[in-house]
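Hi R.,

As promised on Friday, here is the backbone we talked about, encoded as structure tokens. Could you run it through your design pipeline when you get a chance and send me back a sequence?
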């Protein structure tokens, strides 16, 4: 690599999402000010932004839950919002077979119809005996090996298709780490015999949420701490000359750099550069789009929704894979908590799972009625629809081969591609991971320290998530 030290280098950052802001915050903390963040939108936050609709409802781009594996992240969140956090205990449920089943599904199969519960148990017991030396070849095989035929067929395969918009047989499985609760057969049997609901699992059992302004409030506040003039909004990078180290913006303005930290999708970065040698690898990356449909409602949630945070929907009769009761996250997410409440649905889209874009809002409302979340479309006070072309970085079978070509080759030209779609690693693509990818990169450039999150996601995720401070 060939670039001057951080103190003397001209540093350009593409994107003011959590990764770009994390890198900028870290540079600022080191006393380095010769950097500029270029963001194509007119607001910071990226996929972690929030919006207020004309009726006064606040929406995230999908329900953002705040939890972290890093004390650095926690301390920064404490500094930025102080007392302006609300604390919640996660209550996640699966809606299927016209009933709610507590999440994680496999621990609560006692709620299924008797024949399906038997299928699931038989499959789980079968897994104990079916030891194989050969590693699974894909996520579908991993599901069958880990959960057996019953859970695979009734829940895991249909649900994962709905989330990812690709068949599990097209996905790798090593991204899983802590994300999918693995099986504890003894616990499952005790839950059945003692008729016990098992709801507490995972790193996001406790989470916090900004009192006002949605998740985007965090990133607006972080952006305000940066040195004056270092954040340039409305600057769409349309071309990158990796040889001359020059970026060009829509409208024709140019900026030279010594070090480029890019958080835009790495496939788009390659397409906007002259690097024909990398196009084939970039084309090997797969993503899905996410539709977020906010539904502002009159009245109050039904008693069955009173404490629920979010619900998963594996069945094909509704378009969404997840719905968040967003008014539970903060009363300020609705114009008046005595008169309104809100639901936010997520729908995935890919060439393998097309979505009727013009009809998805209407289909979502109909699905909410079908699933008994709302009584009638007449309850709707407001709707909001956002489509993120890059929603989920798909952990496809060819992903790592593509990344192993792209990231080192870009680094040779002084370009560091990081973040949810910069490094395309779903397993380290939440807000905490993304911010830390920015921070760890700067620390590596400053001191030579390791980029743990990028290079060792399992190790980063193995760190015990901290419970957010309650005040
Ligand atoms: C549906 C959904 C639900 C989620 N839920 C959670 C959750 O519960 N908890 C959690 O922690 N995280 C969640 N996330 C993930 C979270 O949104 C990401 O971790 C985070 O936003 C990634 O930050 P980033 O900076 O890497 O990328 P982004 O947020 O994508 O930011 C990249 C920025 O680059 C800008 N950009 C792109 N191209 C250009 C260009 N050519 N020129 C200039 N600027 C450009 C974009 O406008 C954007 O602002 C969720 C994401 C989605 C989609």
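Update: got your reply. Pasting your designed sequence below so it's all in one thread:
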């Amino acid at each position: 690599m060939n670039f001057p030290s951080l103190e003397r280098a001209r540093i350009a950052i593409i994107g003011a999402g959590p990764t770009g802001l994390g890198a900028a915050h870290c540079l600022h903390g080191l006393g380095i000010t010769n950097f500029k963040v270029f963001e194509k939108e007119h607001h910071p936050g990226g996929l972690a932004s929030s919006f207020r609709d004309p009726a006064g409802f606040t929406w995230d781009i999908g329900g953002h839950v705040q939890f972290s594996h890093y004390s650095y992240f926690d301390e920064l969140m404490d500094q930025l919002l102080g007392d302006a956090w609300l604390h919640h205990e996660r209550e996640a449920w699966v809606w299927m077979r016209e009933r709610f089943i507590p999440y994680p599904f496999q621990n609560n199969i006692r709620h299924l119809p008797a024949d399906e519960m038997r299928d699931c148990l038989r499959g789980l017991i079968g897994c104990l005996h079916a030891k194989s030396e050969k590693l699974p070849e894909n996520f579908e095989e991993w599901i069958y090996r880990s959960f057996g035929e019953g859970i695979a067929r009734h829940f895991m395969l249909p649900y994962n298709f709905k989330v990812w918009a690709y068949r599990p047989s097209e996905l790798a499985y090593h991204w899983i780490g802590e994300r999918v609760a693995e099986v504890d057969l003894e616990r499952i049997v005790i839950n059945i015999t003692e008729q016990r609901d098992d709801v507490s699992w995972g790193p996001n059992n406790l989470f916090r949420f900004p009192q006002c302004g949605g998740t985007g409030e965090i990133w607006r506040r972080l952006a305000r701490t940066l040195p004056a003039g270092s954040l340039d909004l409305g600057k769409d990078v349309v071309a990158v000359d990796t040889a001359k180290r020059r970026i060009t913006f829509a409208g024709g303005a140019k900026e030279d750099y010594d070090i480029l930290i890019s958080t835009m999708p790495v496939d788009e970065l390659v397409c906007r550069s002259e690097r024909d040698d990398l196009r084939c690898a970039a084309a090997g990356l797969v993503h899905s789009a996410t539709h977020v449909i906010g539904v502002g409602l009159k009245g109050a949630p039904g008693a069955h929704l009173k404490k629920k945070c979010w619900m998963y929907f594996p069945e094909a009769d509704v378009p969404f894979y997840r719905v968040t009761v967003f008014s539970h996250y903060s009363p300020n997410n609705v114009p008046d908590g005595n008169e309104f409440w809100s639901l936010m649905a997520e729908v995935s889209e890919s060439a393998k799972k097309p979505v009727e874009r013009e009809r998805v809002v209407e289909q979502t409302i109909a699905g909410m009625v079908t699933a008994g979340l709302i009584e009638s479309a007449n309850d709707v006070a407001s709707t909001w629809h956002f489509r993120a072309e890059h929603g989920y970085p798909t952990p496809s079978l060819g992903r790592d081969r593509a990344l192993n070509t792209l990231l080192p080759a870009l680094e040779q030209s002084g370009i560091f591609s990081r973040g949810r779609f910069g490094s395309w690693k779903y397993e380290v693509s939440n807000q905490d991971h993304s911010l830390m990818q920015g921070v760890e990169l700067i620390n590596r450039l400053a001191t030579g320290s390791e980029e743990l999150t990028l290079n060792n996601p399992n190790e980063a995720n193995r760190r015990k998530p901290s419970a957010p401070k309650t005040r």
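One thing I noticed while checking it: Residues 14-20, 38-41, 46-48, 61-62, 64-65, 235-237, 263-264, 290, 346, 388, 391, 419-422, 429-432, 434 surround flavin-adenine dinucleotide (CB under 6 Å).

Thanks again,
M.
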